[in-house]
């Protein structure tokens, strides 16, 4: 069973969001990193790029597969996690402590359609 962290919001595409005022940190879940296997590369947008809820903003490549990253929120990228350039495996070893991008939200209600930890746990269990 994948670990699910409390206090985050989750999408059905296995990204998480941690709010910090009008900004959001976005990463991938333990379920996602486990399904991908050893992550070898992360494609991230540049600072000042716009991301749109439910649209691709990058990709994660592993030894098994490549998977698109789908933004759970809309806004402007204010930072990207440069540590992932040298150590993409951080997403495997600490998926909830390793964010991919930081976004200034364009819609404060962005997380209202996302799942909390209990709902995401149930969603993952329903996947088998």
Fold and architecture overview:
With 128 residues, the chain is α+β, with helices and mostly antiparallel strands. 20% of the residues lie in helices and 34% in strands. The chain has helices spanning 30-36, 83-86, 90-93, 117-126; strands at 9-10, 15-20, 23-28, 39-43, 50-51, 56-62, 66-70, 75-80, 101-105. A six-stranded antiparallel β-sheet has the order 1-2-3-9-8-5. A three-stranded antiparallel β-sheet has the order 4-6-7.
Give me the side-by-side strand order of the main sheet: 1-2-3-9-8-5
The arrangement of helices and strands along the chain is: EEEHEEEEEHHEH
How many separate helices? 4
Helical amount: 10-25%
Overall shape: globular
Largest sheet: 6 strands, antiparallel
Mean pLDDT, rounded to whole units? 95
Overall number of strands: 9
Low-confidence segments, given as residue ranges, are none
GO cellular component, one term: cytosol
Pfam families: GCV_H
Protein name: Glycine cleavage system H protein
Domain Lipoyl-binding: 23-104
Write out key terms for the chains shown.
128 residues; alpha+beta; three-stranded antiparallel sheet; 9 strands; Glycine cleavage system H protein
Short description:
With 128 residues, the chain is an alpha+beta fold. The chain contains four helices and nine strands.
Helices and strands, with pairings:
Elements: E1 9-10, E2 15-20, E3 23-28, H1 30-36, E4 39-43, E5 50-51, E6 56-62, E7 66-70, E8 75-80, H2 83-86, H3 90-93, E9 101-105, H4 117-126
